[in-house]
Amino acid sequence: MESRSQEQKIAKPSFFRFMGENVKVWIELWRARTFRKSYQVTKVGDGHPVLVIPGFLASDMSSYPIRKFIREQGYSPYPWGMGRNFGDIRQLKKLVLQIEQLYAKHETPVSLIGWSLGGVYARQLAKEKPEMIRQVITLASPFAGITEPNRASRLYRLLNDHRPISTTDQQWIDDLPNPPSVPTTALYSKEDGVVPWQTCMEPVESHFHQNIEVTGGHFGMGYNPATLLVIADRLQREADTWSTFTPSRPLPKTVVFPSL
Known about the structure:
By secondary structure, this protein is of the alpha/beta class.
């Protein structure tokens, strides 16, 4: 396990690495398709609901492969159903309502999987409704440094600067690094070309809060075979039987481009 030191200097991913994302995502999509066909289910899921939240500017189309994989494992995946994620935190109110509905329908806590900004949302939802959340899995989500420079921040400001930051918003931002009371699994990649990988980790790990490194890019994180393996393992766990993820063999690696 690797935890981020407060003294580490955090730099925006290089332009070369960012451009490489457009190549790596197609490689990871192909590898994920091959992986899903060959993966053998070791334990059929219990059918509990899993809400998958897309990243900034992404829609439910981006999370379809994840949801398909989850359904094949025996769970009940759900899209967020709000079109593209433009980064408006007011959407959290609709997500809270969706979680309440899923909880009532299935009569069991909901697992949350959030990709990039979607993972930031997922953690905050778990803080608002911990009794309804089973666990949170984040994929390349910069919750520990949302204000650090990244390759999406300029576009985010362009779309959201019309809405002034309120005191409530600032409190929300300041609270982001704090983990919810439910188990969390934070996946990050040092090859991430969009956000600094250091911001995608729990500052302090514990039995319930774990960081897991995978290889590959930001745009393909949800299609990465290593990501799917971790998701399959974590969804089998409940809070009273929780244990940290320990792979029986090294996680699959994907293409790695050198950084400039």
